[in-house]
Amino acid sequence: MTSFEIEEFAFDARGLAAWAVGDPRFRNWPVVYLLDNPDEIYVGESLNTVARLRQHLDSPSKQRLVAARVIVDETFNKSVCLDLESFLIRLFAGDGKFQVLNRNDGITDADYYRRASYQESFDAIFQALRERGAFTRPIREIENTDLFKLSPFKALSPDQAIAVEDILSGLFEDINAKRQSRIVIQGDPGTGKTVVAVYLMKLLQDIKTADLTEPADSDSILSEFFVEGYPELLEGFRIGLVVPQQSLRKSIEKVFRKTPGLDPALVVTPFDVGEDPERFDLLIVDETHRLNQRSSQASGQKNTQFRTINERLFGQDDMAKTQLDWIIANSDHQIFLFDSAQSVRPHDVSEHSLNGLLGQVDDQHRRYRLATQMRVRAGSDYVGYVRRVLSANPPEPEAFDGYDLRMFDDLAEMHRTIRGRDAEHGLARLVAGYAWPWLSRRNAAAYDIVLDGVELRWNKTDVDWINSAGSINEVGSIHTVQGYDLNYAGVIIGRDLCFDPTKQRLVFDRASYFDAKGKENNRARGITYGDDDILRFVRNIYSVLLTRGMLGTYIYVCDDELRRYLRQFF
User: How crowded is residue 54: how many other Cβ atoms within 10 Å of its Cβ?
Assistant: First the structure.
């Protein structure tokens, strides 16, 4: 299906009038249109394009746009146009050439008749637009960017859409009633927890600043919130997105910097929350499982900050208080997104604290479970399968058709394969457990991982390592990849995780584990972590690493017994 045409004209009264006398379909046919200037773009769809564009000409927010493109196809219907509109919005946001002026009205990933064949024509439409200068790079490169993956312009899965709509309804009821609220969103790796967090930030900011004179899109599932009454409830409403991990936080800040209505200052650390003298109305907390409990921090300054924040918020330095408690104490409403099976260090907020949080919310309207797998093409069963393989109760071996899952006996071969996948698809990387000391941190000439004649170094940067120069020849740790997608992950399982053939169980080798904070006792609270305690975190680490790859996962195992054991599953 490539019967489309792209009409182009100046976006002003004269240009629209001259264009409107043409094809009668301009007044009664589903189309998709683009309005832009050199820096900004708006993507829309309409059944009456002439009338809709006249409305835009009267809108103050659109008057600075100078050019129009209308995509017409005799085979289009309303569902196709909604899908194409979503497709183009996401790619424009990911490309980064323009600031996308669309608001988050709630586009879902809806199916329709012959969708696959229509979507084949979308690539041709994209290419035609790219030839006209609308895009700066091909689709594959755009889809591999953080701007695309972390964009607020996402087509929500059905369970995400249900959660977002229900959360908004309840939040506005609570704000109107002047009562506090707490919401929990749980989900396995790849179910889009970060997507929901970023989406909610954009959506609430759009509602807060909505121009109610702008005609609403009645087809939007969230258009009911862009009417009188809702923006007033958000007047002066202070929102923050808490992201504990530095790398992911910096990536989200980059997306917010490119997105109208959002600002990097909205992305905060737990310490920012604790020290802020002004109370937040709402805090959305991504990766809640990576918040800290009271323990030895990364620096003396952080230890002092922890103490003074406790004293400010609670009147004393209560050792039992965590960063989770700071967020609850300094905000009226909270939305927590987490997966307790992704805690990877002893000083992460405890599983007991997370279970306590679950106990504070009811199931029906304050607790949500995301189930649709958005990362791994093998489906949600693969994530559960990996976790069971690394548990004390392994599953029956399974195959995952269409997913490139395999083990390697030679690291050089796995690295060559990863490099080949990176050349073909992009975003293919080696990752590993923290089973080697980071020698190259202090000696740039040193190699950290030497196996099978292969010499490799750990990641040179802690921030946005996946997209950094030279990362294809480095190895990323859990702290550089948690929260991110890869197309292919080459996972090196070090000797920190072994298999005891006599006891027929996985065991932790402390001598082969070099994350100092990953095995450190909590002296502040008098807690000692034994090998079985750390084993839980190491299992979680490898579960996370083994579920990063969207298209495939390759595995190299150092311990001979563990390699023999895992071969039956992978």
Answer: 14
Q: Nearest-CA neighbor of 445 among 432, 457, 459?
A: 457
**Domain annotation covers residue 54:** yes
Domain boundary among 370, 401, 416: 370
* Residue-number span of the structural domain to which 389 is assigned: 380-567
For Cα atoms 291, 296, 300, give the angle at the middle one, nearest 5 degrees.
110
130 to 17, 32, 92, 137, 279: CA distances (angstroms): 27, 16, 11, 8, 46
- Determine contact, residues 489/482, Cβ cutoff 8 Å: no
Q: Are 26 and 20 in contact (CB under 8 A)?
A: yes
What are the mean pLDDT values of the chain's consecutive 10-residue runs (570 residues total)? Answer: 86 94 87 96 94 92 94 93 92 95 74 89 96 96 92 85 91 94 92 93 94 66 86 96 95 94 96 97 97 87 94 94 97 95 92 88 78 78 94 94 95 97 96 97 95 95 92 95 94 98 96 94 89 96 96 97 97
**Gyration radius of the chain's alpha carbons:** 25
* Domain co-membership, 435 together with 538: yes
Query: Are the C-beta atoms of residues 384 and 188 closer than 8 Å to each other?
Result: yes
Element of type H or E holding 406: strand 404-408
The Cα–Cα gap between 348 and 292 comes to 5
CATH number at residue 433: 3.40.50.300
- Helix, strand, or coil (residue 328): helix
The answer to pTM > 0.85 is yes
Instruction: Write the CB contacts of 159 (distance below 8 Å, at least 6 apart in sequence).
Output: 368, 369, 370, 371, 372
Tell whether 234 and 363 lie within a shared domain: yes
Domain-ending residue, one of 85, 112, 141: 141
How many independent structural domains does the chain possess? Answer: 3
